[in-house]
Amino acid sequence: MFPCDFAWGAGTAAYQIEGGWQADSKGPSIWDTFCHKKGRVFGDQNGDVACNSYELWEKDLECIQQLGLTHYRLSLSWARLLPDGSTGHVNQKGVQYYNKVIDDLLACNVSPMVTLYHFDLPQALQDQGGWKSLSIATFFDSYAQFCFQTFGDRVKLWITINEPYVCAKLGHEDGIHAPGLKEPGIAAYMVGHNMLRAHAMAWHSYNSLYRPKQRGAVSLAINSDWLEPLHSDCAEDIAAAERYLAFTLGWFAWPVFVTGDYPEIMRSAIDAQSKKLGYSGDSRLPSFSKDEPAVLGTADFFALNYYTSRKVKARGACEQVLCMKSDRDAEEVLDPSWPICGVSWLAVVPHGLRKLLKYIKDTFNNPAVYITENGFSQVGPLQIEDDQRSEFYKDTIFEVAKAIGEDGVNVRGYFTWSLLDNFEWSDGFSVRFGLFHVDFSDAKLSRAMYHSGREYAKIISKYKSNQSG
Questions:
Q1: What is residue 469's predicted lDDT score, i.e. its pLDDT?
Q2: Is residue 371 one of the residues assigned to a domain?
Q3: N or C: which end of the chain has fewer CB within 10 A?
Q4: Helix, strand, or coil here: 252?
Q5: Has residue 74 been placed in a domain?
Q6: CB burial class (10 A; 0-12, 13-18, 19+) of residue 154?
Q7: 379-404 pLDDT per residue, tens
Q8: Which residues contact 159 (CB under 8 A, 6 or more apart)?
Q9: DSSP per-residue letters across 102-124
Q10: Where do the catalytic residues lie (predicted)?
Q11: Residue 31 to residues 21, 119, 121, 167, 371, Cα–Cα distance (Å)
């Protein structure tokens, strides 16, 4: 059912758990800046301390061992390693911290999957234009090479950039994530383009300079819902679902896995809307330069973050404004038969993951797939005996098993989101995704395993014993 070397993991991200935002010469990130302004995050909360994993790493390691994980996905804080974003000044305290984390994991027979960028750009680089600047790709490549050289002798699974869609849209169009920009219809496409350029440069650097000795694998983590037409017999809804998928999954997967360029349906929709509104500049969706490293083929596996599914319908009168919503001219709808867990956007649809995995197999030439994030949120009163989340993980892993066994999808690993309750971006600490509860009212930030953590540990133990037998 599951391959003998299947990765059973859980994930975290540096800003969401580490704290120590000024400790040991760490530089500020865009999330430090964003959270320190009033009215941007639930309760004006921030990640200054978070789970304090910078000081309590050993506690996190105990949690990892209790679950019996084979893999742990973490991200590196770019600003902790390189405070001004450049390799001109290396913070050795940051290097020591991540060396310890990686060495401790390996000593416990846990393989690290390391993400280079999980939303927390050094503020010094934002001050130079951030992800809107063409030069950011060169800065990222230098940072990536520094990490490959420093940690790559022990790290064999790398993610360059986590969820470029979320960073581009929520951070540069909607303004609800750092850096909090609201520049609809233009900035998000520019940011997404530069993220793909940065990823491609880093992949090629790894491929030519580090892969021969280190023999690792590199990809980028693409988030996508499963999307299907609201009315399966309606041509307009079918087309709307295709456009919506092109503007989310296709935006980043198509250049890397299919053609080296954006989906034609995406480019034509953007250009048509631009023409309709009298936009006279170059296409708002940039083109890749032949003078730079090719984007096509720059993924050694498909890293998928999946949380939910949506029905899609064609929209009515198109808004006469420049924005991504108008460009794709399609609207998402919740199916009332799908239960909602905690936050309004998260419908519980485990079978959607199986359908999405099959789509990835058929569309992107049957790549090896790691499910790098998947989770179930909890809000309101604390429920340590979280039976709903326990059932969710059982149902979801069963769907993954069917994707492998019945659909022939080459799934290599499954990572829950997340190991710990943590700082959930604009939701602060009001939303809990952890397999372990963190008591943020306790100065010691004590960790306690949820029922879902115990159940996930049982699932891992069961399949590991089957594999060894």
A1: 53
A2: yes
A3: C
A4: helix
A5: yes
A6: middle
A7: 999 999 999 999 999 999 999 999 99
A8: 73, 113, 114, 115, 116, 218, 219, 220, 221, 303, 372
A9: HHHHHHTT-EEEEEEESS--BHH
A10: 373
A11: 10, 8, 8, 12, 26
* In-domain check, residue 385: yes
pLDDT of residue 317: 64
pLDDT for residue 304 is more than 70: yes
pTM, two decimals, is 0.98
Active site residues: 373
Rounded Cα distance between 463 and 451, Å, is 19
Size of the chain in residues: 469
Instruction: Quickly tell me which residue has 């310890």 as its tokens.
Output: 100
75-99: per-residue pLDDT in tens?
Answer: 999 999 999 999 999 999 999 999 9
Distance CA 349, CA 311 (A): 12
- Interatomic CA distance for residues 448 and 179, integer angstroms: 33
Provide the pLDDT for residue 280.
86
* Cβ atoms 367, 301 nearer than 8 A: yes
What average pLDDT does this structure show over 7-25? Answer: 98
d(CA 235, CA 449): 48
Beta bridge partners, 326, equal: none
Handedness of CA 116, 118, 119, 124 (dihedral sign): negative
State the residue range of the domain holding 220.
7-226+342-468
For residue 180, pLDDT over 80 is answered with yes
Cis peptide bond upstream of 179, omega within 30: yes
The answer to whether residues 262 and 286 touch, using CB atoms and an 8 Å cutoff, is no
- Total count of domains within the chain: 1
**Which helix (H) or strand (E) element contains residue 231?**
none
Q: Does residue 104 fall inside a structural domain?
A: yes
CB-based contact 287:196 (threshold 8 Å): no
Backbone torsions φ then ψ of 292, nearest 5 degrees: -115, 165
Q: Cα-flanking dihedrals φ and ψ of residue 302, to 5°? A: -100, 115
**Percentage of the chain lying above the pLDDT 70 cut:** 99
Check: CB of residue 358 under 8 Å from CB of residue 407: yes
The strand ranges marked E within 110-223 are 111-117, 157-162, 217-223
Quote the DSSP letter at residue 247: I
What is the distance between the alpha carbons of residues 53 and 22, in angstroms, rounded to a whole number? Answer: 14
Q: Give the CATH number for residue 440.
A: 3.20.20.80
Residue with tokens 């079918």: 238
pLDDT digits (tens, 9 = 90+) for 421-454: 999 999 999 999 999 999 999 999 999 999 999 9
pLDDT bracket for residue 467 (50, 70, 90): low
398 secondary structure, DSSP code: H
- Amino acid at residue number 163: E
